[in-house]
Design goal:
Layout: E1 9-13, H1 18-33, E2 37-43, H2 44-59, E3 64-69, H3 73-76, H4 91-103, H5 105-114, E4 119-123, H6 129-136, E5 140-143, H7 148-162, E6 177-179, E7 186-188, H8 194-209, E8 213-216, H9 220-223, H10 225-235, E9 238-241, H11 245-255, H12 261-266, H13 268-275, E10 282-286, H14 295-308, E11 311-316, H15 328-333, H16 340-347, E12 350-354, H17 359-363, E13 368-373, H18 377-386, E14 390-392, H19 399-410, E15 413-415, H20 435-446, H21 450-469, H22 475-496
Parallel strand pairs: 1-2, 1-4, 2-3, 4-5, 5-8, 8-9, 10-11, 10-13, 11-12, 13-14, 14-15
Antiparallel strand pairs: 6-7
Length: 502
């Protein structure tokens, strides 16, 4: 038997959006902490975003590096510097961005051929990495930024829609319906948009045909063993639940006595403001890096928060619009009620943060009692790790599936009542969620009644399960060990058969 005496070499290729980059980088750091030689392939703008995290791992003696490739802005007609989905503000630019992301293949392929790894961990949005891995004779592991429950829902929805007449399965028609064939009867109030359903189904189908397995930023108890069995039954693919990755990294850093003094100093004002609040008294409102609401919806959020009587931290992303009508500027300027900021400041009730906030720092503060969220998966895992119950307000893509895992399967959240399921963050919302619904959701979670206590207890229970999963003998740590051993065995067999190029 041929032994592999050198460390395994693994390349990570994340999609260029925060919800993909952040967990991919966390996975890469966890791999490097286990002695693998890890390279993250990305562009210069995104490399700058990741640099501090990479340096933290290097300071711990881990072998991890960035390989920078050029983002093909000129080829698709994008301004220089737009290299992350965070900077995309309209559908036309988004289309160009996706085309440019596909063109990265022209640089990734020759780099991998000249410097072959033992494994590629590819974002599921890059199906073109499959033939590269096949040609090199190495495994391709898919990172899907969704939870496995959402992937199961997408599969089940596809089967159900194929078995029904298309006229009965139109977007947003027919009211609530039950998705059949799953371990639990899951009720959706809206039907997924056909466009995004077809796109996701085709990407997931390609991954199921052209990958060695799936890596999930989650822990087994959150997706649930029934859904893991369901997925493996319909795909026969390996699945590794390794997460929450952010919690695994925090544990590792605590063990190494590695602190983030500089980062803490940068956010001392937020921390000190939270320190002045009672335990579980503050609502954190954030809809991720891509959701941008128009003025009327922001106005309703402000009114709902004010009338709830709760303290809050609200991260605001305003919708960018071309002002083609005379009244649009007035609408943009009227996104807050008259005197709102002054009243909140006088009462010391609210902080409004524009565009970005240290989400993990906020969620892990004892003053935070609830999280109003779009149900993006990175946000969900961070809230679960902190034991914070959620007010769910999904907007697009798979977020409505995540909501059902939170509220129907596990019960550590309440629904705000979203009425529109969009294919992308760039489709304008036609319906406004009312201040009444917003206030009601906040009060359900923050007023201390029986329901609130049940939901809060379930959130604490899931936090404890997450903590156990990332311990040394926990399910996520054991899955990481099993995955690395599997890759070593594949590399050893490749070396024995003369196909290893590492």
């Amino acid at each position: 038997m041929v032994a592999i005496s050198r460390p395994l070499k693994v390349y990570f290729l994340p999609f260029l959006a925060q919800g993909h980059l952040i967990p991919s980088c966390q996975f890469a750091r966890l791999f490097a902490a286990r002695g693998l030689h890890v390279t993250i392939i990305t562009t210069s703008v995104n490399a700058r975003f990741l640099e501090s995290s990479i340096e933290e791992s290097k300071a711990l003696g881990h072998h991890i590096q960035l390989h920078i490739i050029r983002f093909p802005s000129e080829e698709v007609g994008l301004p220089v510097g737009i290299e992350n989905f965070f900077n995309v503000t309209d559908a036309k630019t988004a289309d160009k961005f996706y085309v440019a992301a596909g063109l990265l293949k022209n640089q990734v392929e020759p780099f991998m051929e000249q410097n072959p790894p033992d494994c590629i961990v590819s974002d599921f949005i890059y199906p073109w990495t499959a033939p590269i891995a096949t040609r090199l004779g190495i495994p391709r592991i898919v990172f899907n930024s969704f939870c496995l429950f959402a992937v199961c829902m997408i599969n089940a929805n596809k089967r159900q829609s194929q078995s029904q007449p298309s006229s009965s399965y139109d977007h947003n028609s027919g009211g609530p319906f039950v998705v059949s064939g799953l371990p639990d009867p899951i009720t959706l109030t809206l039907r997924p948009p056909k466009l995004i359903s077809h796109q996701l189904e085709s990407l997931i189908e390609a991954d199921q045909k052209n990958s060695y397995g799936l890596i999930v930023n989650n822990f087994c108890e959150l997706d649930g063993p029934d859904y893991i069995k369901y997925y493996q039954k319909i795909t026969d693919l390996k699945v590794w639940h390794i997460g929450p990755a952010s919690l695994m990294l925090r544990n590792m850093q605590r063990q190494k006595n590695h602190h983030h003094q500089q980062r803490n100093k940068e956010h001392e004002y937020i921390r000190s403001w939270l320190d002045s609040k009672e335990c579980n008294s503050v609502v954190f409102v954030s809809f991720g890096s891509l959701c941008r609401f128009a003025g009327p919806q922001l106005f309703e959020i402000a009114c709902g928060l004010e009338s709830s009587g709760c303290s809050f931290i609200w991260v605001v992303h305003r919708e960018s619009k071309q002002k083609n009508h005379r009244d649009e500027e007035d609408e943009e300027d009227a996104w807050l009620p008259l005197g709102f900021e002054e009243r909140m400041k006088k009462e010391n009730r609210g902080l409004i943060l524009m565009k970005w906030a240290p989400q993990e720092l906020i969620l892990n503060h004892p003053a935070i009692g609830g999280f109003m969220t779009h149900c993006g998966w990175t946000s969900v895992t961070e809230a679960v790790s902190a034991g914070v119950p959620m007010m769910t307000w999904p907007v697009f893509i798979e977020q409505f599936y995540n909501e059902k895992l939170i509220t129907q399967v596990h019960g550590f959240g309440v629904e705000v009542g979203a009425e529109e399921w969009k294919s992308s963050p760039y489709e304008r919302m036609e319906k406004v969620v009312s201040r009444v619904n917003i206030e009601k959701a906040v009060r359900r979670l923050m007023d201390g009644g029986d329901e609130a206590e049940r939901v809060r207890m379930k959130a604490r229970e899931m936090r404890e399960k997450a903590g156990k999963a990332v311990e040394e003998d926990g399910s996520s740590q054991m899955n990481l060990t099993a995955m690395i051993e599997d890759l070593k065995l594949l590399a050893m067999n490749g070396a024995r058969n003369g196909t290893s190029m590492g």
